[in-house]
What we know:
CATH topology of the largest domain: Cytochrome Bc1 Complex, Chain A, domain 1
Structural class: alpha+beta
Distance between the termini: 47 Å
Amino acid sequence: MNFHHATLKNGMNVVIVPITEVESVTTMVMVGAGSRYETHKNNGISHFLEHMAFKGTRKRPTAIEIASLIDGAGAESNAFTGKEYTGYYIKSAAHRIELSFDILSDMLANLLFDPKEIEKEKGVIIEEINLYEDTPPRKISDVYESLLYGDTPMGWDIAGRKEVIRGAIRRDFISYMKKLYSASNMVIVVAGKVKVDETQKAIEKYFGEHPTFTTEGHKVVIEGQKESAVKIHYKKTDQAHFAIGVRTVGLNDEKDRFPLAILSAILGGGMSSRLFHEVREKRGLAYYVRTASENYMDCGHLTTYIGSDPKRIDHAIKVVVDEYKKVQKKGQITEEELKKAKEFVKGHFVLELEDTRSVAVFYGSTWILEKKLENPSEVIAKIDRIRLSDIMRVAKEFLSSPLNLAIIGNYKDHDHFRKLLV
């Protein structure tokens, strides 16, 4: 898989990834705008704006007009918001790509933000927030990052706070776009059955006039944790949910970032991983068990997520703590475990890239977050170069850091759980 990179005169970056084996194409615009660029007054605006993108433009004033065009072409559209970027995409048959360019460029330049549509969408978003609140396996990651990053944009929920959503008005969206939706802060990725030269010309036609300006930055995460921390999100549930882990590194630290990804796979990356075996298979303490290494631009964490029997949550937490200590102090990881974990990470990476949408996300997010581009084969080569000594180094360095524990369940005693982290 190879890419072609260019920059338009207005500063917008373009990545074209020809994939001749498919008949479809994903056209995606990704913007360096997410919840970490927000303030207390507009928390949730990034996500709300994503919802408004398909609600009407000056050229196509209603949501049904946009939806009818997309459906009539046999295409699908959607958008997503993260803490550091927002993406908008249309996936279509290859011969309908120009329609995708037309609709997406129209959205970026001509959104109506009809006050009536804004009011209706407030109810939709509040129900989405309620859905997350009632889905603890999903909510636990928000509680955990709130513990790590506190009352800062990185610690806030992407969906925002209900009171802010209810108070949003038209000028809030316009003001936000004028701060971040510059051509120079965007990348358009086209992945699928396309011809590079033709596609490049069409992109220049539809996106070449988008305005460019100086964008606002984000607050840098300041870390200096001295002792373990606990946060409880009180909720009566039939299953306890907790996240336990340590702070790590940002995306630019490749020396540690890739070994941490392998370490997370060894700990909880599949049904044969250490924690899945110890917590679920050996003791029957939980239903889901997984460990992930998350990296943002300037910070990161390695975290284990578990849905546990509420009466045996102490036992489940101690098993995780003990397994962390085993790896950190005794260095019991074997070459066989390393080999299996590397194949696990590479295999899942390759499987994700079988879909043109995932290919577009890979190239788009890499550019937005790291300002670089690389082929998947280069990522795989970095994983292949990891040695057991690299894993032991990051295990000793990071698993000896203060632990962080977030819990959703019918509990109130923080001190009780803090003692389990010693």
